[in-house]
Each structure stands twice: as C-alpha cells, then as structure tokens.
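Lab notebook page, bench 4
Experiment: in silico fold of construct C2
Operator: M.H.
Input chain length: 355 residues
Purpose: comparison with the prior construct
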Amino acid sequence: MTNLKNDLLLRALLRLPVERTPVWMMRQAGRYLPEYRQTRAKAGSFMKLCCTPELACEVTLQPLRRYAFDAAILFSDILTVPDAMGLGLYFVEGEGPKFSYPVRDAQAIKKLAIPDPESDLRYVTDAIRLIVGELNGQVPLIGFSGSPWTIATYMVEGGSSKEFANIKSLLFDEPELLHQLLDKNAQAITEYLKAQIAAGVQIVMIFDTWGGVLAPDKYREFSLPYMQQIIQALPHEVNGQVIPKILFTKGAGPLLADMALSGCDALGVDWMTSLTDARTYVQDKVALQGNLDPSVLYARPEIIKQEVSKVLADYGNGPGHVFNLGHGIHPGIDPEHVAAMVEAVHELSPQHHNH
C-alpha cells in the first residue's frame, strides 16, 4: 500500500485491518521533553523555533527517538497562517499568542491577502521536506492547520480568549462579515495544506480547538462547513496513496455525527465523550482518534496502563481506532509516563484486533 516501513496509522485511519492500535500524541514534540526545552532555548524564542526549518525538523523527530510512536507530527503552530496574512503574531511569556493588528471590521477583513505557502510560509514546507528526508519512510508525517473558525477567534480577539466577546459579537451582529473572514481563512488553509501535501506529509489534521464554544446550530453554520470546504478541495490521493484527513473539534460530543458526513476519514475525540458513544454517533463511517484524558499521564505507570486498557475497551474490537490523548499533553508530564502509555498500547491493543 505504501513505501512506509510502518503504515499502521494510515491503515487505521482508512479503517483497514491492523495488528495493533497505532499510537501518537497531540503535542508529542513539546515542553514535556527536556531535549525540546534545550532546542527551544537554543532558538531563543518559540517563533524562531517554528521559523527555522532545521530546528523544527529536530523537535519533530525528538519524540520518535524516545518512543515507538506510529507517526511524526510537523512541529509548527496553528497561527502561522494569520501571521503570514500580516497580523503581526508575537508571544507573551505566560499569556500565549497575541496579534498586533486584530481583524474587527469590514475594511480589515477586505485587506487580508491569501498567503502563498511557498513564499510566505516557506519555512513550513522547507521543514516538511527536511523531516520527510530524515524519516526516510520510517513512519508517516502528519501535517496540520487550525480550522477557519479557531484561527478567526485569535484574529478577531487579538489573542487567546475566555469569553470570545469580540468574535461572538461579530457572529450575532454581522454574520455576513464573519462568513467573509471564514471563507478567506478556508481559502488560505486549503492552499497551505495543499502545499504541505506537495512537500510530503502523508496525513493532514485540522484542529478546531474552539469549535466547542459554539452552540450546535452556530457550529453547523460557522465552523463545520468551512472545514468541509477545505477537505473537499484537498487531493484525495497522491501517487496512488490516499491522504487521510482528520478533523478534531474539542467539545464536539454529539456533533461528531454531523462531522462524520464532512468527507473526512477520521475524527479526533476528546475525553468528555466516550468512544462507545462516539462510535454510535458516527456509525462507523469514519475512524476515531483518542481519547485518554491527558491528566492521566500525571498518574503512576500502573494506573496509566489501567486507563489505556479502558480506552481500548471503550472503543472495542475491530479497525478504525487510533490511540491518542483527548487533547495535547500537558507540559509538566514525566516523559517516563509517556513511555508507559505507549508500551501499554503496544501490549494491550493486539487483543482488540484479529477477531
């Protein structure tokens, strides 16, 4: 099927039989690893780390030297796209991302240009080419972007938010204007993901981190259609190899049923929804990825093993499950605890296959 030495993840995402459940982890290249913190210190800033292909390549590969993960995920940030649109992204220690030029009116939205990934985001595609060369077919590389809605929340709020006051005001007062912004974001993300695929990623994932702050009817209007627009515009396959697409909305719950009709191959599930319920919602139309509560990794290794076993049993038997956390790993986790999780998946998952 592929020229990969390990294509478990690709098979699982396409709901083909596997010998064991593949495992990778959101934010697997990150602050819980001492080697990441050293590279980050060497880079001098988070943005410098993202924008230097050699360093982005290095941190993408670090977790694979420690753990038998079934994929690498590109080290980057969901805000690279609005940054390339000229909004002036910067990071404040302890506060997270900020934009110098938030987008709040018709004029600002009109001014936004769709970035050219090979010039404006060249550092990302260069990093992908380096990583693919270094991986040499060992495991697939996952590329990603934020969703149009999630990126819009940062663009309109000017940074992280708890109330989402500005974007929700826009949503209710001037829905047409918000639709214009979301459409622009969808176009930009489509070009960005196409460029990632052309550079060599074998799987793409769209992170809709803030989709869950929308009421169900608003989610169906302002988030899901734009992700669907992107999925439908991306190539189905490259050189005979299907490129699976994963959608992840944190807090989706029953909306997984709508998401399963979007044309994606798999859905990420957070830890607030059981995989048994998720399977009922999606009627086995798509694969499911998840959904260990990241906080379980604070626990002792024997507890981690028990909790991994519960997640595997919750999904049940048969193909179409990718083991992951229900959100990204927390920075304070002991790296040894991640090893315990990966080993538990390797040891316990084969019994759920070959039935």
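Observations: The chain has one domain: 28-290. The chain has a mean pLDDT of 97.
Next step: discuss at group meeting.
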